[in-house]
Structures are given as C-alpha cells and as structure tokens.
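Example record

One chain of 139 residues, shown exactly as stored in the release files.
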Amino acid sequence: MIVLLTPERLGAIKEAAKRLLAKPNPNIRELAEVTGKFVAAFHGCLYGHLHYRQLESDKISAVKKSQGDYDAPVTLSNLAQQDLHWWIHNIENAKNPINHPNPTIILESNMGWGAVYQTNKLGVDGPTMNSNYTLTPLK
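Predicted structure tokens for this chain:
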C-alpha cells in the first residue's frame, strides 16, 4: 500500500511554493503558511521532511529578529530557495509506501568519527573538525 496526496492538495502545495519563491521578500506569515502545508504533506511525501528544514530555520531566525512580528519580511536563503524548488519539481510524484523493504546495507555509527559496515570499520584521519577528513580503514 502507498499513501498518496490528493491531486488538489498536490496542486495547492506546488502553487504555494511557486508564489513564495516569486516574492523577493515574503513576510514570515506567508513562509509559515507554506511550511505548514509541507509538514501536513509529510505522510504522503517520503522525502518531504528533508526539504523544509532550511525554510523553517529562516522562519525562526526572522521571527527572532522581528521580535515575534509575523508580518515582517523574511529573506529566503539560497538553501531555502532550493528546498522550494525541490517541492515544485517533486511534489506531483510524491508518495510514501506504508511498508518499507528491509535495507540491503546497514551502516552503524556511534555518532563519532567512525562507522562499521559488515566487517569493515571506517574512521577519520585528522585531529580537528576544521581539517579535511578522509575515511580510512581502521585496524
């Protein structure tokens, strides 16, 4: 089984994203309305939750800067604009299977600088976070 959004809902989400993208400086309220539509569509859009966070971040920053005035303008970052483009180009094909197949690869990590895949262990060379890292096999 697959969860799908209705054609009306798909169209409304796509048009809302287009309208927001077309405005040079929308207000915070308009941004909140669009992100609300995105969040409400997550159940029928498998990857939707990966493409709204920058919009939400821009909204939160703008609300703090305006001291809670939702009618204040917000400037959308490049990443937020990319998220809007994603919704415009992908929402019509959105779906979410109810049952997901078992993964073919499991990558485990302890949230540190290493990972394990089957019997292969990977780690990061470099003493600080500002270094360029290369994953290398650990012994």
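Notes: The CA atoms of residues 54 and 101 lie 29 Å apart.
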